[in-house]
Fold:
Amino acid sequence: MSNDTPEELPDDSGGPRQSFWSHLEELRKAIVRSLIAIGIAVVLCMVFTHKIVGVLEQPLRRIDIFQKPEPTVTLHIGTTKLGPYKVTREQFAGLPGGDAPQVEYELGTAVIGDQQVATLKTLPPRTDPSAGPLQVRLHNFSPAEGFILAFRVALYAALIISSPFWIYFMASFILPALHRRERQALLPWVGWSFLLFILGVLSTYYLLLPIALRASVAYSNLLGFEGLDWRANEYISFVTHFIFGMGLGFQLPVVVLFLVKLGILTHTQLAKYRRHVIVLSFILGALLTTPEVITQVAMAVPLYLLYEICIWIAWYWERKRKKQEAAQLIE
Structure:
């Protein structure tokens, strides 16, 4: 008969198991706090959805940044805007001076005798050309589409606005598990990752998106279709996926150079896989943005340029390391 007493039997409720459950509880708290922060931000963003949509429409207002400006006319009938329409001075002799005047008229009527005639009242010029009417018109085509669009826009904006909070909550859970040296080594990589993400978002918003949108309109015209009326929900989805996709795509140098630091990849191996990276860039363009040629090319080109920069940085690191090893041997 065994002489083991209950006190001498292994205690399944102590030690590592308690530590595991405590860590799981801390993770649950971090996730719940992050979701609460995002939820509060969503409610606040719903109030200012029209302002956020205006920000997302700005690339659409700048689709002609690389084209020669042409005279345009916009017509206002009550609260409805028509245009802008490209015109010539022969069609509108009253256009003001300049190579490409952007004129807006208020369309009305006047009574002359027993008849009514149409009138055009010139509206004062806008001080900010980017605040003018959209050349491409956005529409909703279902009763619930407006609310769905507003919620989607608010959700994307809330993830950005609340990011300092949910990043802090998740970091409070992760960082205590790391040693001091690990935290010191990790923070520079996190900083570069954040910087590249912002660089990808801004370059897409101010440069790549206007080019891609203009190419989409031009391609529709080439096929013989009118490309100036788009579904608002699809436009917002396209813009947000493209912006966030490029932000994630710009994390490629962080991943590649981290593997170089670990010794998993070398400068020679990176140079060997150039052709594979070209194909991978187009695949990432299809997965992270929208599966069309225009956006894939717009994303593949900067990603491949970033990969080339990684090759040169890896070459510099290897050269520096060899010089340090040679200096140590001489000493």
About this structure: Strands lie at 72-77, 80-86, 102-112, 115-122, 137-139, 229-231.
